[in-house]
Amino acid sequence: MSTELTHDFKQIVLNNTSLIDVRAPIEFEKGAVPNAVNLPIMSNEERHVVGTCYKEKGNACATALGYQLVSGKVKEDRLEAWRTYLLAHPDALLYCFRGGSRSRIAQEWIKEELGIEITRLEGGYKAFRNYLLQVLETPPVSITPLRLGGFTGSGKTLLLRELKQAIDLEGLANHRGSSFGSHITPQPTQVNFENSLAYALIHHQAHSYRYMLVEDEGRHIGCNFVPRALGDYFNSAGLIVLEVPLEERIQITLKEYVVDSQEAYQHAYGEAGLSQWYHYITESIRKVQQRLGGDRYKQFLNTFDTAYKEQLATDTFTPHENWIYLFLHDYYDPMYRYQLSQNEEQIVFQGSKADILDYLQQLEYCNEL
Predict the structure, then answer these.
(1) Which of 47, 90, 178, 367 supports an S-S bond with 24, CB 3.0-4.6 Å?
(2) Hey, which residues are catalytic here?
(3) What is the pTM for the complete model shown?
(4) Residues 313-331: pLDDT tens digits?
(5) Which domains, ranges and CATH numbers included, belong to the chain?
């Protein structure tokens, strides 16, 4: 690959091109694009010192200071990091914030000292980010949006993951969209959520699907939120309601929030995993204390405490069905039932998982929804 500039951001997205981000770690942590790895040309401290020099003495002095700071063993280590990555990802591209001196210098060093030619992004991260924001601000009018709804525990996310026409908003936000929805790993920054969402939209549009299915969410998914234009696009969509019996929903919830969740906590925290999981559930119950009211809050918490103690004594997950039933039947179901009554005119189909899969298959081959 020649040492050129490129601004073909769409192909970078569609090809899932690997990228080397040479910005300082503090910049990368605030937001980067998918498939990018942070191999900085300057550390946070070096960037700060050079930035101060730039403000006080101008560009020439700042550039000279940068070369001085990144020299000798420091420079060798950074070149080796780039070399190692490029051997594994020979088609990777390079960028800094504006496509200016940092990526240009890195590009020159990689060519002159490693003998590897690498293309960098014209306009850098800022130009790429603006491209992705434009995607979010212009929803695809040629694709019909659909929302997948259903009572809590219906397995909506499981169904979405089976469909190539779907975009998993909760997966992109690393959150399950409820008071109990947080994972062990943190959510992405809002910038990273938006960038990943734009990638998903570009890939979806490239396949020319007839519809786009997302879960029936509010704009907020934990700490992340769907940009307004795209949120309005989704909210205008027809609603498909997944119907699942309560007992099956209890089992789906038990597996996700107890069995699988405990396994994840134990993997992350070892022997302390169960107590960490216990804290996560009790804290989640506390978040809805005001909505539950004092007496119900105590009832729900006591039911969970009892289930947890019985699990420890019997080594079985079955006792947790009791507090899950309370939350589904007495808390979430009435709220969703009311929500459905307010959106009856938007319901275009409702039925079992098999019914919905048949309906969606027909849509893919129909001229009109």
Answers:
(1) 47
(2) 96
(3) 0.92
(4) 999 999 999 999 999 999 9
(5) 5-134 (3.40.250.10), 140-369 (3.40.50)
